[in-house]
Amino acid sequence: MKSSSLMQKMLLQLAAHMMEMVASSTKKNQNSKRLYTYCTAFAYFIESRYEKLKILKQGDNGAAKIIRKKTLNEQAEYRLSLYIYLFAENDRYLIRHLLTCEITELTETEMQAVQQIQKAPVPYSFIKENGLEQLAEKRYIVETSYNELKQYQQTVFLLKTMAGSKKGLGSYTILPTTGCNARCVYCYEEGYAVRTMTIETADRLIDFICETKHDDAVKLRWFGGEPTAASHIIRHICKGLQERNVPFKSSMVTNASLITKELAHEMQELWHLQKVQVSLDGAKEDYTIRKNYFNPEKHNYDVVMQAVQFLLDEGIHVQLRVNVDFDNLERMPAFIQEMQERFSGAEHLTMYIVPLYQAEQSDRCIEVYKEIFRLTDMQREIGIPQSEKAKDKTHTAHLKLNFCMADNLKKSIVITPDGIFNNCEHLPEKNTWGNIFDGITSQEKYKELCTTPEIDKACAECPFLPECTPFHKKGCPGYFKKCREYRCLRTEYVLHRLLQAVNIESDDVDEEI
Ligand code: SF4
Ligand code: SF4
């Protein structure tokens, strides 16, 4: 062994050993977190100096360090990791690790060797002869006895522990009302009783935030119904927090039809609104039918377009979320063009296209997704980014530690107009375990919700588990039958675009607002 690679091995082992010591320590405080970060950075520095692989996209450094193999077992047999996706196009070959999120380019010979391993396990000598040691060290190739599901769960647990040393809640999703001035034909809240928060409940909510928040600025997410239909409640809560010197920033999901120039200004000044997600349905004719406003004279497509401009003028990031299905797809290209013309040059406008729940659940959902990818290419080409992250050409991918808020109960909470806790705005309130007046009323329910549910058998064998959710068992509407087929399609799309030097987020674009 050359002395330089011996030195590399020793330095890497030292960093990995220190990380293990910190990780296994029972005291997870700020110092251990800092030490862990230094070790990770140190190992990364050493590794990058000796890296032989052609990394096309950096992955999650923390996850990579945790799963890295320090020394290869020369007696073992090796197979391909479950969390691997192989891709070939125009004589270029990629391998993507779905747990570390790293994407590496292979030579044709390396790809052939990897494909050979895919067919049947191989001895260590095969790894060595084909120069695949680094792929094995980075767990693209693993020992046949390696328990990857366990490693995945431990990695998530460890990264969550290291990330979550702050005490208290950081994010509050608040429903000031369940009422709405629209009657979207697809709304899942249809039939829900309309309730609006009272001033008394809002006062208690201000106290509750002060009692439960962690030290830094908290994040408020306004959701509904239509949250601006109860703007007096939002105003009251924001003023209350300001009077108590609680630093906060906020985001909102809205149809935007009630936003005037004055309100947009207040949203920026008093509500500290940084990001607004505006739900649209494509072209004006589709929007009018689908939103089905109670008062279309006052609330309509043109008013919403004007509101988007007011928000952009205030420097607020507007994310247009465009819902599509088979009926409005064909008018989407003209709609995208219209958005470009209306808001050309807007610095803080992004747009992403999603299938409606019904289309996603249908047998033809893959067709809809293919169309969405085509439309997404079009919007990018005419200059409307999908997300803020997508604007960053160098951004690296991260392992999802929390798929959603229901998976992050100790840091984030949903509060209904009556002050009742819920773990997800999409799930029925019967999941509640308490309220802002009495705190936790059912320890049993709380514990059950805090415990990560057992992973379904199909998911446990699925390569996409690290980027997916184990929640569908609990009634998550985000789950759909063709989930795996969709993930394949999406991965191929990301890798195809990467080869064209377009840095697409490897995660879903439906980022949390
Ligand atoms: S929900 Fe579907 S895509 Fe996700 S891990 Fe389970 S089987 Fe795989
Ligand atoms: S709908 Fe599913 S994925 Fe979304 S927040 Fe609720 S439980 Fe999580």
Task: Explain what you see.
With 513 residues, this protein is of the alpha/beta class. It has a domain at 3-163. 41% of the residues lie in helices and 15% in strands. It has an eight-stranded mixed β-sheet with strand order 13-12-11-10-9-8-14-15. Strands 1-5-4-3 form a four-stranded antiparallel β-sheet. Strands 6-2-7 form a three-stranded antiparallel β-sheet. α1 (3-24) packs antiparallel against α2 and α15 (365-381) runs parallel beside α19 (483-499). It is globular, with a radius of gyration of 25 Å. Mean pLDDT is 85; it is low at 506-510. It binds iron/sulfur cluster (2 copies). One iron/sulfur cluster binds at residues 458-459, 462, 464-465, 468, 472, 479, 483-484, 487.
